[in-house]
Here is the input.
Amino acid sequence: MDQVEIFKALSNKTRLQILNWLKEPAVNFPEQLNPDFENTGVCVGQIQMKAGLSQSTISEYLSILQRANLVTATRVGQWTYYKRSEEGIKMLNKIISTEL
Amino acid sequence: MDQVEIFKALSNKTRLQILNWLKEPAVNFPEQLNPDFENTGVCVGQIQMKAGLSQSTISEYLSILQRANLVTATRVGQWTYYKRSEEGIKMLNKIISTEL
DNA sequence: TTGGTATATCGGGAAAAGTCGATATATATT
DNA sequence: AATATATATCGACTTTTCCCGATATACCAA
Here is the structure.
């Protein structure tokens, strides 16, 4: 993954917020229906409602974050659950402290 | 300073390269004339030549990096010397490990 | 299989970023 | 004061990003 792409993914207020919200799903998405969402993540619709942007935009943003390895996606039935990729974020930390 | 602006500053290959080159000025800018450049930094012209983009573009890029607190500038005579702001970069590390 | 819901993808218009050449400004030299 | 050099700023054009609505796809339930 290209460093530039990672930083581009982070160059947007909404995408940074999403990453932050996913730190504490239970706090930020109290209306979550999926009982296992702490493990699986939060579905697109919930994130979209909280962000207040269109469905297509949020879907797009989530895939940008995914391509940058900042989140992972799990499809369960008709829902796609997204959660932070702590591994990818750790990698980013390493990049910044060594390569930057 | 807005986080988004910092990440935008880093979302460009040339700007990332500049930041890297400035880690080792003596290695990357051997034709440097200023005898004190290890302290003061490297002047715009040298960076421009190495990057191979126009003078105006590099001047612009350096001020983008400066606004993001990733480099500092010192004017000496007709030259402006730029160097990494290790402090700003440390701050970025903190942002990423705590706020992201 | 028909319809309903969740997400992804496509096409597009507006705004921002990339990049240039030309010009302006600041400084130094004569 | 006149000229030369280094850098900054301006105006313009192209490419990319932002964000939308419309449509397609995937899955589920009756």
User: Anything to note?
Assistant: Strands of chain B lie at 42-43, 71-76, 79-84.
